[in-house]
């Protein structure tokens, strides 16, 4: 059986995803066969695994870090939030059903078998598996039936390293508090801890380490500084959008409305790396900037409800004004569906609204259908005659006169639509901005040089930087036992 270690956090968003990716790359660089694993993830940022089916985008990134093909078994349970208290449940890459929070708690023991089965498949033929928890083991109100943290660790016999985020403050209390409220069996699974996102003189935390050891007996496996390479990695959770600061004015301003159920917003990451692009995420209560040249409507897990919120925010009027000024619009997946005249949902797949008017910027209509399209795709842009590699994850079929001007040819078939003047474009293809040629030609159409470089290589370099940082700052004796 492969060696395995599990990183659990003292809370959400403490940096587990980046640490797992960095450790995967570090192990791969040392010649080990390593694979990531996350029993349960909650995210609308999904990817299509190499063996087909949906997984969290973070596990796709971690497999890239590990230099190994991605698999649905790396993230056997994926929850895709559709409302404030309900999610679509993906099990081993396929739609399992839908459930609200309390109902899902009753389902978890049933899903544990699939989680353990997937873990065995991931571990087979592997030197090392690095497991990522979800949320925090300190959520003891959810411990019964848990499959994401200690419930998995105790059943699979995987030792745990706790990760504490010092940047948000209270890291000593969060570690000591976790020790205090875990039961004896769960506490025994914890081998030690890592302090993450440290800024400044590490020696100032010497007394903190002694205090934590005095309360818990746990050793410290390292103090990791704020790793700059992490900013160049695709983000997993929409909480990151709340922290993105607006940059200075640049040659091209692109506005992106942040929908309540925004999905696959990492589509925008390649644009963020462009030196001449100012990417503005427009949040609830804000107006779309009048000086934006391009508006991108991102994917959505709930097209109809997000379209209703779009109108509540007044963004429909902003968008019409933008188009009236000669601005351009790109809609991706759910954003593409919103651009049409009508969205029909006769089976109530997204809820109780069976039909809603769209933004009427494209002469197309969408009908939701129960069968989900999930596949990686090779495509070509009809606008710029540029190759595209991406993926599709969507419900619904879109038809109409503007589809006679497809925006791309995907796997030999027409996809998407263009308005007659070419200023409004929709597509079901995620990842199109990651095509360096397409991105360059898009920017050139706005008068820019479009020489931002190879995006995939920049992500790969960031992973190597993170791996080097971990090698420098983590306890060498612990690392030797893990990846030596």
- Give the strand tally: 26
Morphology call: globular
Distance between the termini: 17 Å
Q: For the residues shown, what is the average pLDDT?
A: 93
Regions with little confidence, pLDDT below 50 for 5+ residues: none
Percent of residues in helices:
25-40%
Number of helices: 14
Largest sheet: 6 strands, parallel
Give the structural class.
Answer: alpha/beta
**Quaternary structure of the protein:** single chain
Quote the beta fraction: 25-35%
CA radius of gyration:
23 Å
Q: Order of strands across the biggest sheet?
A: 2-9-1-10-11-12
In short:
With 484 residues, the chain is α/β, with parallel strands linked by helices. It has 14 helices and 26 strands.
